[in-house]
Amino acid sequence: MAERVIMTPEAIARIRTSFAEISAEPRTLAGRFYTELFDAAPKLRGLFPVDLTSLQGHFEAALALVIRNLEQMRALEEPLRELGAQHVAWGAKPEDYILVREALIRAIRASSTNWNDTVEADWRRAITSIAVPMVEGAAVHAAMVAERLSQE
Ligand code: HEM
């Protein structure tokens, strides 16, 4: 199992301050995120619905998850694993989580006035703390399918 990402209370406070600034314009941020993601990885566009406005929900849910639950990551691990297993059906590969994380960081940076290396590192850790259990959940899903196969 991958090591758990621990956020200090100071880092969580910095993230929330940063989020308060960018969440004033959620649509701008969401638009930037998908532009960044599909510019960096056009192959991912086909996984998402044609109508980009429906992607809004995905983006906002993902970001709100990161922000709201930074102190309770342990309690969130199981639901995140399930979300990760669900993502297998949507075509998300483990490597895609890096692309998503970096696109999100570029979008947040472009929407921020108080950006620095510390805030960037904080955001990267926060997003990683969500992505790691999701990728593990996908791996557990694959192991369970293998188990089922072997028993047929
Ligand atoms: C930080 C990591 C991520 C989080 C927190 C996250 C969160 C979510 C959530 C909450 C949903 C909506 C679930 C629902 O409707 O029940 C969703 C859907 C989806 N996610 Fe993610 N996601 C993440 C990473 C990824 C990655 C790496 C990919 C692959 C490129 C991806 C592709 C998708 C797709 C294709 C959908 C379905 C969109 C649709 O058809 O409506 N996600 N995600």
Provide structural commentary.
With 152 residues, the chain is an all-alpha fold. The chain is 72% helix and 0% strand. It is built from six helices and no strands. Helix 2 packs across helix 3 (55-68) and helix 4 (73-89) packs across helix 6 (117-150). The longest helix is centred in the last third of the chain and has 34 residues, at 117-150. It is globular. The two termini are 28 Å apart. The model has no long low-confidence stretch (mean pLDDT 90). The protein binds protoporphyrin IX containing FE (HEM). Protoporphyrin IX containing FE binds next to helix 3, helix 5 and helix 6.
Task: Catalogue the ligands.
Answer: protoporphyrin IX containing FE
Content-based structural category: mainly alpha
The helix fraction, in percent, is over 70%
How far apart lie the N and C ends? 28 Å
Mean pLDDT across every amino acid position: 90
- Rg over CA atoms, rounded to whole Å, is 16 Å
Keywords:
mainly alpha, binds protoporphyrin IX containing FE, 152 residues
Question: Short description, anyone?
Answer:
The protein is mainly alpha-helical. It is built from six helices and no strands.
